[in-house]
């Protein structure tokens, strides 16, 4: 079986500091590099009044996206990587930065062919 | 049950014109607007030598991302929208632009709380 890439859907619950675009940017970049990915572009938007952050890091090997709801202490993160990258290696950086009480990880293999 | 957003994982197979950043940008924008979303930012990267395109449209209501493999006629698209947007309304624009022979759609509800 061949597949185009591994797509992790990561939900953080009980998380902190989800209103900081700077911390989020730095954390996703650290995670991307630890996973072995090459960063091409990043963009983050800071919402008012709730302080939520939406953004993405575009990689040579796909992308990482994040959307945060600080008022619910919840963040929805996608880590999609193809090639030899290991997207799971980004997760410890999320735990360290945002101190979630619970982390849910779902794995989807995209582009599977026999 | 409340949830933060609806996340569609859309895989196009047997698709055409997956090497055109301009067509991809226009198509994702049309789809975002048809779904009722507000576009904040977009960025697309065109790879050589295969002509693949990776990119994202950041929305006030989350994001649309795409990664294409023209040599396999395959594209992996995510349409993640919260609020009153209907992400399914973007799919006809993907069909019209890229003429896929098969479209697979998976739905994930992100941030579900009782």
From TrEMBL, chains A, B:
GO: which molecular function terms?
Answer: adenosylmethionine decarboxylase activity
Question: What is the reaction catalyzed?
Answer: S-adenosyl-L-methionine + H(+) = S-adenosyl 3-(methylsulfanyl)propylamine + CO2
Q: Residue positions of the PTM Pyruvic acid (Ser)?
A: 62
| EC numbers for this chain | 4.1.1.50
Could you say which enzyme class this protein belongs to?
lyase
Q: Which residues cross the membrane?
A: none
Q: How is it modified after translation?
A: Is synthesized initially as an inactive proenzyme. Formation of the active enzyme involves a self-maturation process in which the active site pyruvoyl group is generated from an internal serine residue via an autocatalytic post-translational modification. Two non-identical subunits are generated from the proenzyme in this reaction, and the pyruvate is formed at the N-terminus of the alpha chain, which is derived from the carboxyl end of the proenzyme.
Which coenzymes or cofactors are required? pyruvate
- The catalytic site is made up of 62, 67, 82
From the UniProt record, give the pathway where this protein acts.
Answer: Amine and polyamine biosynthesis; S-adenosylmethioninamine biosynthesis; S-adenosylmethioninamine from S-adenosyl-L-methionine: step 1/1
**Keywords from the named record:** Autocatalytic cleavage, Decarboxylase, Lyase, Polyamine biosynthesis, Pyruvate, S-adenosyl-L-methionine, Schiff base, Spermidine biosynthesis, Zymogen
Which residues are annotated as site, described as Cleavage (non-hydrolytic)? 61-62
Cofactor annotation comment: Binds 1 pyruvoyl group covalently per subunit.
Gene Ontology biological process terms, A to Z? spermidine biosynthetic process
Domain of life (superkingdom) = Bacteria
**Which GO cellular component terms, listed alphabetically, does the Swiss-Prot or TrEMBL entry include?**
cytosol
Q: What protein family is recorded?
A: Belongs to the prokaryotic AdoMetDC family. Type 1 subfamily.
Q: What is the protein's known function?
A: Catalyzes the decarboxylation of S-adenosylmethionine to S-adenosylmethioninamine (dcAdoMet), the propylamine donor required for the synthesis of the polyamines spermine and spermidine from the diamine putrescine.
Q: What is the protein's quaternary organization?
A: Heterotetramer of two alpha and two beta chains arranged as a dimer of alpha/beta heterodimers.
- Name of the protein: S-adenosylmethionine decarboxylase proenzyme
The scientific name of the source species is: Acidiphilium cryptum (strain JF-5)
Per the UniProt record, the lineage of the source organism begins with: Bacteria, Pseudomonadati, Pseudomonadota, Alphaproteobacteria, Acetobacterales
- Please give the first and last residues shown and the length of the full protein: 41 to 154 of 154
């Amino acid at each position: 079986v061949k597949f185009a890439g591994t797509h992790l859907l990561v939900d953080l619950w009980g998380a902190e500091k989800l209103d900081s675009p700077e911390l989020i940017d730095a954390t996703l970049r650290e995670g991307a590099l630890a996973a072995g990915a090459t960063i091409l572009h990043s963009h983050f938007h800071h919402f008012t009044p709730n302080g939520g952050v939406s953004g993405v890091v575009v990689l040579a090997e796909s992308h990482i996206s994040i959307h945060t709801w600080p008022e619910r202490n919840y963040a929805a993160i996608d880590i999609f990587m193809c090639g030899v990258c290991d997207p799971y290696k980004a997760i410890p950086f999320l735990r360290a930065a945002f101190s979630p009480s619970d982390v849910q990880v779902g794995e989807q293999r995209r582009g599977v062919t026999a």
